[in-house]
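[job 0412] stage=complex_fold ligand=FE3-S4 cluster status=START
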Amino acid sequence: MKIELAESAGFCFGVKRAVDSVYSLAEKKQGPVCTLGSIIHNEHVVNDLEGKGVFVVDSPEEALADGNTTVVIRSHGVAKSVVDFLEKKGICFEDATCPFVKKIHETVSSYSERGYAVVIIGTESHPEVQGTLGWTAGNGTVIETAEEAEAFFLENPDQKVCVVAQTTFNYKKFKDLVEIISKKGYDILAVNTICNATITRQSEAAKLAARSDAMLVIGGMQSSNSHKLYEICKNQCENTFFIQTVDDLSSISLSSFTSLGITAGASTPNNIIQEVLEACQKI
Ligand code: F3S
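[job 0412] stage=complex_fold status=DONE, emitting structure tokens
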């Protein structure tokens, strides 16, 4: 069986940077370390970190209650009020916000201060979007669907609008929603803040799935980008399987296929990918 592993499988730059910083802090053993929310949507990594004494807190207040701890802000970033709270309370923290997300924070913060209304194209409940909203001066609106874009309305029609996107948003959908808002006649500045890492991973996965007899997508159950990858691959290759770890291979029969493609979501660690690859090579 010919096996091909997608080059872009696994951690993107921002996630790798954040995970590495937690491991590095845990190894220094200079006091307790916690992450604000799970560092990534992968229970193996979270459990492994737990074994090294790194725990997860849901709020900066919880970190404060835990005393002398170093808080790591994950790659999704957080609202300005969270950073302000940590600074004000003198809580030691490491900001592992992905630089691309930081750039969005700077953009919305700067335009918002200049009086622009800010539109974030994305999913309102997503932590990255929540974080970005928290860098506007309270004048941010989240739009995810065409209906929401149609309903977008500014009381002052002369107010300018700055539009950004959640980094993992679909580019075509972003363009369509920007077009709907543009037609309303507002003065719009649309900044495409969609990250290439996602686009590259998705288009590589689609091409690989199209030329493979079977396709494996490795990702955590909670990882939305891994499920999205699965959908994309399934559209190209009927025999696409979603697995979390090498253990799930036992329930799939791959021996009848002559070519196998493998990809993995942004939160899948390299050791899990390698284990799957090695197990497949033995088939
Ligand atoms: Fe950053 Fe792009 Fe990853 S924004 S966290 S490198 S998907």
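The two ends are 8 Å apart (CA to CA).
[job 0412] exit 0
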